[in-house]
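Supplementary notes for students who missed Thursday's class. We covered one full example, reproduced here. Read the sequence, then the structure, then the short commentary at the end.
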Amino acid sequence: MAALLPAEWIKNWEKGGKNEFVQLCRALSENKNHDVGFRDIQQALYELAYHVVRGNLKHDQASNVLGDVIEFREDMPSILADVFCILDIETSCLEEKNKRDHFTQLVLACLYLVSDTVLKERLDPETLESLGLIKQSQQFNQKSVKIKTKLFYKQQKFNLLREENEGYAKLIAELGQDLSGNITSDLILENIKSLIGCFNLDPNRVLDIILEVYECRPEYDDFFVPLIESYMYMCEPQTLCHILGFKFKFYQDPSGETPSSLYRVAAVLLQHNLIDLEDLYVHLLPGDNAIIEEHKREIVEAKQIVRKLTMVVLSSEKTEEKEKEKEKEEEKTEKPPDNQKLGLLEALLKIGDWHHAQSIMDQMPPFYSTSHKPIAIALCQLVHVTIEPLYRRVGVPKGAKGSPVSSLPNKRAPKQAESFEELRKEVFNMLCYLGPHLSHDPILFAKVVRLGKAFMKEFQSDGSKQEDKEKMETLFSCLLSITDQVLLPSLSLMDCNACMSEELWGMFKTFPYQYRYRLYGQWKNETYNSHPLLVKVKAQTIDRAKYIMKRLTKENVKPSGRQIGKLSHSNPTILFDYILSQIQKYDNLITPVVDSLKYLTSLNYDVLAYCIIEALANPEKERMKHDDTTISSWLQSLASFCGAIFRKYPIELAGLLQYVANQLKAGKSFDLLILKEVVQKMAGIEITEEMTMEQLEAMTGGEQLKAEGGYFGQIRNTKKSSQRLKDALLDHDLALPLCLLMAQQRNGVVFQEGGEKHLKLVGKLYDQCHDTLVQFGGFLASNLSTEDYIKRVPSIDVLCNEFHTPHDAAFFLSRPMYAHHISSKYDELKKAEKGNKQQHKVHKYITSCELVMAPVHEAVISLHLPKVWDDISPQFYATFWSLTMYDLAVPHSSYDREVNKLKVQMKAIDDNQEMPPNKKKKEKERCTALQDKLLEEEKKQLEHVQRVLQRLKLEKDNWLLAKSTKNETITKFLQLCIFPRCIFSAIDAVYCAHFVELVHQQKTPNFSTLLCYDRVFSDIIYTVASCTENEASRYGRFLCCMLETVTRWHSDRVIYEKECGNYPGFLTILRATGFDGGNKADQLDYENFRHVVHKWHYKLTKASVHCLETGEYTHIRNILIVLTKILPWYPKVLNLGQALERRVHKICQEEKEKRPDLYALAMGYSGQLKSRKPFMIPENEFHHKDPPARNAVPATVQNGPGGAGMPTSLAINTVRLEEGTTEETDKLKEKSQGVVKVINKTVNATPKVTTSNGNSASNSKIIKEKDDKEKSGKEKDKEKKDKTPAATPEMKALGKDGKDKPKEERANKDEKAREIKEKTPKSDKEKEKVKKEEKASKEEKSKMVVTIIESKSTAEKEREKEPSRERDLAKEMKSKENAKGGEKVPVAGSLKSPVPRSETSESEREQKRRKVDTHSSPSHSSTVKDNLNELKDSSAKHYINHTTPTLSKSKEREVEKKDLDKSRERSREREKKDEKDRKDRKRDHSNSDREVPQDSTKRRKEENGTTGSSKHSKSESPSDSPRLNEKEKEKNKSKSSGKDKGDSIKAEKMEKSSSGSKKESRHDKEKTEKKEKRDSTGGKEEKKHHKSSDKHR
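Structure (token representation):
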């Protein structure tokens, strides 16, 4: 520290140093900072004295200046004494004696400044002696020791109780007197003071006695508290606390028990702040550390108990009993020591000192203090008192009297709550300390809950200010906290108190479900770990739940249900969690569990809903099985449980529905399973692909018929549950969002969710999504009121364009809206004008339709490209999508069926003798009412259908615009209407088929029924392959209904003529758009229609075989599903059925080990197919194979030796083909690869005959390749020409495509040809040639009065290309027959046979056909069996048997026909000559050029559209004329001899046979010759018969 006195001052002391020092001291003493000034003055004085000791300054100089300075401060003498004291110690240690002398001289000089007493206190006795202040230092020391002993160690003598008993006796009498009079504490205090003075009593002992008396007289708080307070002024503050502590100490022996009176006294003194809690707390036992240890030990013990309970113990019962006894003994010995802190806490709570009680609780672990029952009860009592006024005002239920709680007499107790705000400040805090131990006081529990209810009522009523709202929000969050921390845990500790559970639900139901579920989540997952008691309770609940669930069966549902109910009142979350875990493992528990849950409270049902959602959302559970192809069984079980439980009990659905919606938003569709189950069980609306046709039919009726006959289960009891589901959807605005999310998710399943998943699973999820949408939409349509529905569903363009809903789903959702709209408009119009005439009604109906649908027509235009509307009108599109089966037909048979069922029921009721009469009456009334309802509904639907049909009749002319082609129109119709809708639902599949028929029946302009059916049946491979499992089933239903219609027409000429004869849909010419109707020649006649139907059957077989042989899972599964669905109408033809049977058998063998689901499907189909086999018929009975357009020839010519031989060989070949070869199926496979291109061509084809460069090029290229083939087989051809000149043109044809080349090669060559063409342009000459030929063919067509036939379908063309023996052989037969002298080439396009068949054969065949198609008569099956056997034994024999009965009559008729035919022959001769001239001009052209027109005509036919009308166009179409020409030339040769004919057949066979072996052909020749001889007698008729069978090929 720096020196305050510089050396210069000391040197120049007299001159200026002294003054400087005085000024310094003055300055320092005036310093405001007291401490700093004090230290500095000490330093200054010390330095001055030190200079004196060292001799730098004289002691008198120093004493003088100190005399001046001493006045500056009051404590200056004391400071100086301190300085002397320090110097005394320092100098006494020094050896230099002179310094010590300087010091003593200085002190002596200053004695007048410092008093003797101060110096005696501070200086050493030796120094004092040397200064002469004391005589002897030794005596001084002795004296000071005596004084200290007396002061500090010697106890003052007081008279104790036993010594001075009179004084104490008087004191006790004074305190124990009657205090009811005017005696005050002040008066008594004076008396006590007198007694202490008089008897010399110990004041502390007196205080102890006052406390003892107070303990005994606790009712006199008002007297004793002021007395003690006054008395304490005479004592030290700590005295009272020490005395109390000493009292508590006295009871701290292990056996001691502190009396409650002492706790109370301490509590009152604490409350009046006479002692501090901190001071008293240290005197109490046990210590805080011991309490914390005990708490931890409790938790560990609780966990051990849990472990014991959850452990599987396999010991005997005796050992368990022993353990229990041991535990009881331990409990007896371990009596907990007295806890004085808790005793004091209880006393504090009883007197209402919440502040101090809270402080003590805070020192302990949470809920430790309240886990002791007396404390919990004391705190509950305090809460009772605090909430009393508020509870009386708002909480008491109406009509309840209640027992008011008296308030505490104590003014320092907490203020009673008058408002919710005060409740929050005071009571909520107390409740938080109470925690789960509110369970000790159920009455308080109920009061708190009722206050919560009252608050929620106030909270939910609007109209308060902003500030109040904020306060209310705070209060609400506090209430939720109290519920979480206090009410629910307390409920867990209550012993199955159902009333409390219901009381709590009264408050809970006012919370939104989000808050409730949050509370349940906390309760289930966190609360049970917060306290040892709760840990034990959880374990006990699980243990009990296991016990019950092990014994739960269908038989003991009631007793088990009661046990479950008891357990659930207190701990629902734990119980349900366990039950759900069991259900997920064992789905057979679902029914008994659902039945056993009838004893739950409302709160428990709500908790159950939460537990279900939590189980569903469990992130640890996999939603797929390990094979990744199916949904996990746990999810399926839970979904099934959901449906059952929500239907049976009144559980709130909002949470579950929102969960499903959230999952959909997240792009997860697994949980739709839940929605599907819930809707199915609650509304009774089932979506299943296994519906029977009867059920489907019933589903097309009204609501009553649907309910009675449309579903598998009875849905009578779903009224309430469906209402609940509807309310939940509407209240939470989930109806439309769920629909839209499902509609969007359908594609999401494929493109997003299904990314890595197995195709099978993706299909399943897609189906589930789609089915649920259909089911849910159906539920909304039937349950929502018109207003609700219209309010929620936006218009179709908004649905599609804004919400991106697929069109089929959008119309599905809008359809009920249109129906509602139209019916309401119609009702309005009916009310407005009361006209009862039917036409008036119809007119009003049509008006209302126009009003409602006009905006829809506008809206749909935006859904597709503008060019779509060139072919079909928006009106047609909207009409198709807005109608349902209900609008098109009345299911009379379904109504009759249900009415008959009811009649049977009524009869059974009458016959039942046991039924009591009143019940009989009720049941009969019910049946009668239902019957009336059904009949009324039927009548209503009938009127409605008639109105709809009238409306369609008026609309139909504007439906199909066909601005491009009819083909294009059909494409659009199928693409935009039929295909999307037929796979939407089973009823929609039926609707589509029905709609097509309806459009046909309405004679809709520009609608070609033939084309439509042809396109549907022709190539089903692609549609089948792209379906999911359920879509395949619906597509199968659609095809089944289409086939049913076709089969009906096929079965009977009368039906066909009536329903199709003059209908524009069966025109075989495509005319300009304006032309409607046509002459008879334009219509497809009955026989040709049968050929077409056979072609369709063939196409179906071909597609089915292809799909079955791909090996692809989806192809095989889907085609099997489709085949199973169309089994009633297909296969009908034996050989097609056999081909299918073989492929299916092969699938059964291949898939048995690999894919069991395919194996099961195939086996199922195979069995059903076998059962249908007796109803199948040979091909020639299904349709006649001879070309009907052939002219009759004289008997002599027909009866030639060759005439009888041909049919036999044909029959043989036919049988061979029907048995089918693997080679053929391979070709089918290869062929299907190229079909896509062909379809695309057909779709975009136009009716104009235009051949582009590319087309002509490809034609010529193909022709060149064909020429090469021809050259390679030239020598063979020459040989055959020598032998059989008549066959030459046909041989060329065989050279061209008769060789056994697979179809694929040719298709590939077509492709290559096109590619080469693009690279190398053709010469101009060749182009010109092609053009000339086209012109020539056009001219020829214009000359001949020949109607243009509709072109064959693409697939048919391919079929003709196919190199099968049967077909080429058939061609040869035709060429032979055409080459005969008596035969002429028929008029191209004439599909009717001018030759009438014998009536008997006609009628017989007709009858047979009807039988085949209807399966009605049992005798029929035997006939067919006979035919089959005959076919197997010998084909020739079969034909003989078949034709012999008709022989005689036909001979008589022959002559009459000749004249008619001759005139026709002449006209055809002239046409032939024209052809000849034209072909002579072209003879110089090469063979390849001669082939061009044929290809170009094929293409032209394709462009004209596809119908399967002409089966024999190769020999009949005008473009084949080059070959015909040559045939004309060689007519005479062909007439030669039967032997030649036999040779020619032999040659053809050699050419045809795949093996090419000569032996076989020789054998065939011998066979045929034998047949010729045997059959020559029946030649004519047989030949005629075979013409019909040939015609098919």
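Commentary. The two ends are 134 Å apart (CA to CA). Residues 917-955 form the longest helix (39 residues). If anything here is unclear, bring it to office hours.
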